[in-house]
Amino acid sequence: MTDGSAKDDLFAQFAAVGKALGHPKRLELLDLLAQGPRSVEDLARTTGLQTSTCSAHLQTLRESGLLTSRREHKRVFYALSGTDVAALWDQLRRVAEEHRPHTELARRAYLGPEDTVALDTDELIARLERGDVVLVDVRPESEYVAGHVEGAIHIPLDELGERIADLPTDREVVAYCRGRYCVLARDAVRLLTARGVTARRATDGVLEWRIADGPNLTS
């Protein structure tokens, strides 16, 4: 018969991953790292954490096998250990939305009203191939540099209001950001439509495109 302690050890390995996922800020860090590798300092700024606290969360995720790290001089950069980690994070969100009723209430409170028009990925890809849309990446610069859709114009959300004139006027604008639970593209479309620009948001974002057959991403 199989040794019970061996089974316990196996399930302990699974539990270590679950334990690492059991903190909201660590999930936020996974969400950000799905965009591409980031330094500890950059992640701390984005999440509003102290650098030491952020580093501790990242080390927990690394020890569980979910992240890798590398050092460049005095800076440490972290990355997801595989696309399957991004898929795990995406599946966790889907399970929460399906089985925890309050998740939808929290989503609405964060993303705001359904006052923007979305463009699904299949149609976006087709229109990119035809060249009849302007794709705008509204994420921060560090995320754009880490990986973006080929041909996308980069205008961070906090610069968009002052740079509307940079957008071509002969095509519809489509804004994209981190993913389905990111507010940046929604806020970009709200701003653009208020200024008279025809704009929609991509239904998906970099997270979903990394784990599925989405637009080509630079790496």
Description:
This protein has 219 residues and is α/β, with parallel strands linked by helices. It has eleven helices and eight strands. The strands form two sheets. A five-stranded parallel β-sheet has the order 4-8-7-5-6, sandwiched between helices. It has a three-stranded antiparallel β-sheet with strand order 1-3-2.
- Secondary-structure-based class equals alpha/beta
Q: Tell me which oligomeric state these chains represent.
A: single chain
Secondary-structure element string: HHEHHEEHHEHEHEHEHEH
* Cα end-to-end separation: 48 Å
The rounded Rg comes to 19 Å
Which spans have pLDDT < 50 for at least 5 consecutive residues?
none
Gross geometry? globular
Number of E strands:
8
Biggest beta-sheet profile: 5 strands, parallel
Order of the strands making up the biggest sheet = 4-8-7-5-6
Q: What value does the average pLDDT take?
A: 95
Strand content: 5-15%
* Helicity range: 40-55%
* Number of helical regions: 11
Layout of helices and strands:
Elements: H1 4-20, H2 24-33, E1 38-39, H3 40-47, H4 51-63, E2 67-72, E3 75-80, H5 83-99, H6 101-111, E4 118-119, H7 121-130, E5 133-137, H8 141-146, E6 153-154, H9 157-160, E7 172-176, H10 184-194, E8 199-202, H11 206-211
Parallel strand pairs: 4-8, 5-6, 5-7, 7-8
Antiparallel strand pairs: 1-3, 2-3
Key descriptive features of the protein:
single chain; about 220 residues; alpha/beta; 3-stranded antiparallel sheet
